[in-house]
């Protein structure tokens, strides 16, 4: 830390925070006798709190966002220069950075064509949901309004996106939800017994898991189903990569029943999974909608995008004489120019520094380290993920796969924090299944960073479980 704030300043900040800030995802009762953590500064992979404690951030801002690391002066300068010239105008008109970033983004997404700007992943997903519903009225006489979503997947915190939420604890106490959202089963091979498919493995399991989606489509009636919304790698629901055969069969099903495929890249997008810019590109998926947010500008400015094909776009300009024909929607802060200005620099950094390649290499190193920990700690039942997006599932018994209690998972998180490493966990999400530690270090991570993270996990597991 550079010491810009003195002790009195920091005391005032803490007092103001406790008195007036309502933190995300936090129970505030403990703050009556203790202080919240306030992050004062970040540089590269490290952050410092109000007490001067240094941490390695192994979750990129706690929610998988700061992909290129903290303290990027060139992004800050690009944002400053842009907002001094033109900070905002509603997206009914265009702007220079919005046009240039859309062009750059589409270059990375063959088959896609149009970018709709908004300000959060939740809102980006809602835009796609609205488009599906409007297409149902424009093209199918008001039918095909149903949107399928997958158990364990997460698509946002608004009521509509929670209606498509596959994590029941996140949804508790917020219903009733919007109609015509229908759940399909997860595709996690580690827990295939939950699907009645424990006799299958590999590609056979992947195809069978996808076929369970078809069974639900047939139950609901294909003429009523408009879209299927899936994460390419399930994030907060357990860091789950679909098995071989799954995505090919999913696309066959969507094509057979005329169902739009919506891929939620809010977590996986812009390099997180390594090698490719987006998670779906690893699996040969050809989506109709792709939504993204977190890593688009690495948290330096608020931006989210709903990207679609020219075919979908054309549906909304087919009858210009009809005043209701176009997509009648606005996202106020989708008109902010700071977001695309930051996103352009963010993407340039990833290209110039070879961060997709680094993500792949460091992801392989981290997965290897975690697999080595699995040999040492019987409490680890599974290691999984892609690129620098990894998870380990903790179980009481590897044979029964009984999950450890959530309190023990959070104890590991706390111990890592005490050792100066911030890690993530699936908590308060899935009843009885909040037993996965999650890791998503910045794409700039070095071998030393990766080893320090996994060393802390090793020590924390030893302390909590023996």
From TrEMBL:
<dbReference type="InterPro" id="IPR015422">
    <property type="entry name" value="PyrdxlP-dep_Trfase_small"/>
</dbReference>
<dbReference type="InterPro" id="IPR005814">
    <property type="entry name" value="Aminotrans_3"/>
</dbReference>
<dbReference type="Pfam" id="PF00202">
    <property type="entry name" value="Aminotran_3"/>
</dbReference>
<dbReference type="GO" id="GO:0030170">
    <property type="term" value="F:pyridoxal phosphate binding"/>
</dbReference>
<comment type="similarity">
    <text>Belongs to the class-III pyridoxal-phosphate-dependent aminotransferase family.</text>
</comment>
<dbReference type="GO" id="GO:0008483">
    <property type="term" value="F:transaminase activity"/>
</dbReference>
<keyword id="KW-0670">Pyruvate</keyword>
<keyword id="KW-0808">Transferase</keyword>
<dbReference type="InterPro" id="IPR049704">
    <property type="entry name" value="Aminotrans_3_PPA_site"/>
</dbReference>
<keyword id="KW-0032">Aminotransferase</keyword>
<protein>
    <submittedName>
        <fullName>Taurine-pyruvate aminotransferase</fullName>
    </submittedName>
</protein>
<dbReference type="InterPro" id="IPR015424">
    <property type="entry name" value="PyrdxlP-dep_Trfase"/>
</dbReference>
<dbReference type="InterPro" id="IPR015421">
    <property type="entry name" value="PyrdxlP-dep_Trfase_major"/>
</dbReference>
<keyword id="KW-0663">Pyridoxal phosphate</keyword>
